């Protein structure tokens, strides 16, 4: 067991095995209550045909045996870290990224799996063009239970793009999503994606104010500045189940302000062209009217939600970044934790 270290918040963090040299790829795995699946996820990472990687696992104070299972692996490429208290799913994802040392960050959620050639295929594509900041692939979907409707709606979202090549103009893909008012995440979940460290340094990390769409929010910011690679093969397995944060957020409508925060983030990037900015401003006005009506409905049902008040304070004060950066010292976000 490694020595205790101190994270960005000053709290004691437990560190396990570290690789002996700096890897090219960091596979980042945030985990919470994932004891049912994390073993399969770890083994899928260790089975990669690409060997120059580290696997950074950050357990978010799980009450189950997630941490014990992660610690049971002795592969020197694995780093296991734990938060003394639960810091929230998105902040935990950002902490995993902040601990990564590779030039490329491959996401892997603890309830998903990677195909053995996933990292190798994505690295081959990313290496073909330095302008590529994000690579994604098709994914295989495993649904626990009988949620056939979910599979029908979400299994092949990449097919919504008018066309996908191996190397794509990110802004062109962004505009297709803009035309749908960012109604769906056509790129896919984090386990289907790899990004460059350079893109994260320029575009920031996940916005912790979002609940259901932090990945789409990050993908769109990267698409505005970089080319996007696509691999037309299922290189990961996405597991949809009732215990996931996605399912939980949907049940309690925790994500009702997500689109509004996504639009705010785009307006703060400085990367929008005039016509794009005008459309995002129009969408923001329409979305604000929608959430105001929703808040009235919530009040009528005795369900006041302080999130809207927080958003309005942000609009009035307008200070700080919406998303943290890879350099904690440079981050001015009032809610960001890496």
Notable traits:
338 residues, alpha/beta, Spore Coat Polysaccharide Biosynthesis Protein SpsA, Chain A, 12 helices
The unreliable regions are 1-19, 328-338
Q: How many structural domains in the coordinates?
A: 2
Which geometry do the CA atoms define?
A: globular
Main beta sheet, described?
A: 11 strands, mixed
Beta-strand residue fraction: 15-25%
Helix content: 25-40%
Number of DSSP E strands: 11
> What is the subunit organization of this protein?
single chain
Architecture per CATH nomenclature, i.e. the level-2 architecture of the largest domain: Alpha-Beta Complex
Task: Report the C-alpha radius of gyration, rounded.
Answer: 19 Å
Distance between the termini: 23 Å
CATH class of the largest domain: Alpha Beta
What is the CATH superfamily label of the largest domain? Answer: Spore Coat Polysaccharide Biosynthesis Protein SpsA, Chain A
Kindly name the structural category.
alpha/beta
Alpha plus pi helix count: 12
**CATH topology heading of the largest domain:** Spore Coat Polysaccharide Biosynthesis Protein SpsA, Chain A
H and E string: EEEHEHEHEEHEHEHEHHEHHHH
Q: Overall pLDDT, averaged?
A: 86
Question: Can you walk me through this structure?
Answer:
With 338 residues, this protein is α/β, with parallel strands linked by helices. It folds into 2 domains: 4-252, Spore Coat Polysaccharide Biosynthesis Protein SpsA, Chain A (Alpha-Beta Complex); 258-330, no CATH class. The protein is built from 12 helices and 11 strands. Strands 1, 2, 3, 4, 5, 6, 7, 8, 9, 10 and 11 form an 11-stranded mixed sheet that branches. Strand 1 and strand 2 form a beta hairpin. Helix 8 (214-223) packs parallel to helix 10 (258-268) and helix 10 (258-268) packs antiparallel against helix 11. The longest helix is centred in the C-terminal third of the chain and has 27 residues, at 274-300. The model is unreliable at 1-19 and 328-338 (pLDDT under 50).
């Amino acid at each position: 067991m490694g020595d205790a270290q101190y994270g960005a918040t000053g709290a004691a963090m437990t560190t396990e095995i570290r690789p002996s040299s700096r890897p090219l790829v960091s596979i980042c795995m945030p985990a919470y209550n994932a004891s049912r699946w994390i073993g399969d996820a770890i083994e899928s990472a260790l089975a990669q045909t690409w060997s120059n990687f580290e696997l950074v696992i950050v357990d978010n104070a799980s009450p189950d045996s997630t941490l014990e299972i992660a610690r049971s692996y002795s592969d020197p490429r694995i780093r296991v870290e734990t938060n003394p208290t639960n810091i929230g799913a998105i902040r935990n994802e950002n902490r995993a990224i902040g601990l990564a040392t590779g030039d490329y960050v491959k996401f892997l959620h603890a309830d998903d799996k990677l195909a053995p050639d996933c990292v190798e295929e994505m690295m081959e594509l990313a290496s073909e063009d330095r302008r590529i900041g994000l690579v994604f692939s098709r994914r295989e979907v495993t649904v626990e239970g009988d949620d056939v409707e979910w599979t029908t709606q979400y299994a092949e979202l990449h097919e919504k793009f008018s066309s996908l090549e191996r190397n794509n103009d990110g802004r062109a893909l962004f505009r297709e999503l803009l035309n749908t008012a960012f109604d769906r995440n056509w790129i896919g979940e984090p386990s289907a994606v790899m990004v460059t460290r350079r893109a994260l340094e320029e575009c920031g990390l996940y916005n912790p104010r979002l609940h259901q769409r932090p990945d789409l929010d990050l993908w769109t910011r990267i698409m505005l500045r970089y080319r996007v690679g696509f691999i037309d093969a299922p290189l990961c397995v996405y597991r949809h189940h009732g215990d996931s944060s996605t399912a939980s957020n949907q049940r309690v409508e925790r994500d009702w302000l997500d689109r509004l925060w996504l639009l705010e983030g785009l307006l703060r990037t400085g990367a929008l062209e005039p016509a794009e900015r005008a459309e995002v401003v129009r969408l923001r006005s329409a979305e604000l009217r929608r959430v105001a009506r929703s808040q009235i409905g919530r009040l009528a049902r005795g369900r006041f939600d302080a999130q809207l008040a927080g958003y309005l304070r942000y609009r009035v004060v307008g200070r700080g970044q919406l998303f943290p950066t890879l350099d904690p010292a440079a981050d001015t976000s009032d809610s960001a934790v890496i």
